[in-house]
Amino acid sequence: MNIAIIGCGTMGMIYAHNLGNMPGVQVSGVADLIQERADQAAAVSGAASYTNWEEMLEKERPETVAVCLPTYLHTTFVLSLAQRGLHVICEKPAALTVEDAKEMEAVCSQHGVRLFIGHVVRFFPNYRNALEQVRSGTIGEAKMAHFKRCGSYPQGVDFWYHDRAKSGGIIMDLIIHDIDFACWLFGDVESVYASVTSPDLNGMEYAQVTMKFSSGAIANLTGFWGYAGPFTTQFEISGDGGIIRFDSNQVQSLDLKIASGGSGSEEAVQVPSSPVLHDPYYLEVQHFIECIREGSEPIVSAADACRAIEIALACEQSARTGQPVRMEGMTS
Length: 332
Hints:
Strands 14-13-12-11-7-10-9-8-15 form a nine-stranded mixed sheet. Strands 3-2-1-4-5-6 form a six-stranded parallel sheet, with helices on both faces. The protein is an alpha/beta fold. Helix 4 (74-83) runs parallel beside helix 5 (98-110) and helix 5 (98-110) packs antiparallel against helix 10. The chain has helices spanning 10-20, 35-45, 53-60, 74-83, 98-110, 125-135, 164-167, 169-186, 280-294, 302-321; strands at 2-6, 26-31, 48-50, 64-67, 87-91, 115-118, 142-151, 189-196, 205-213, 218-225, 232-239, 242-247, 254-258, 267-271, 325-326.
């Protein structure tokens, strides 16, 4: 498959590295307004380097394009690529509004091309393992979950993350990872409640989200930009028969504690993830390419991406008003 990449920042470089090492895939071109970044992506992927994306498309004739641009540019580029008859793999979030995301989905469908949104948490082995444990009933009925995601304040060439009109802010850009996973885990969302601190001069920003599901399950999500330590993710999923815990700073992948049947003691089982050759971003884009080749449905759909945006915006509304927001008509 012939693939091109538009945008050669952090995510673009990850795509360039992974696609450049993927059997059956040729990265024909990479484009970025900054020549140096385009050249770096070209060097790791074996592609031609461009600063004009339209020239790249004309010369390289890709079948699929990976859009690794700032969020506020997603809609314009995805619509243009779809109208050219090209399949699109776009980084998350799909867009800054539900209307834009749904238009992207509709236009891609209208032109007979596929649209995939990179909600990569679904491809992290520890999260997938936890989901499988819950669905298999290992911890009984899952009723409560806590998710935490902390990292340094994002930096970029034009600091577009600093402009909420371009990035969507901490909930839309960071916590949306866990919003999507919580929906995958628990299904229909009934209501959300959120609070967000205003960024300080150093970019530190903190947000807390509570999601209530139709099943009665509750998920608490925490996001923190400005964390001084390494990027950290944590979760705890509690059921009436046990608890699953994960901390990215610990060696083990999952800490699974099963209720012992009333004896008063607990049995802790360390469940390591299977050794993987490739990182989750590789697994994600490989999956999307297989869906194009086979005409199969992806693990994460465009509709899932639209739902995540709708919930993130409801959380923003809650943070502004200080009131819970009901998700009318929300389906899984």
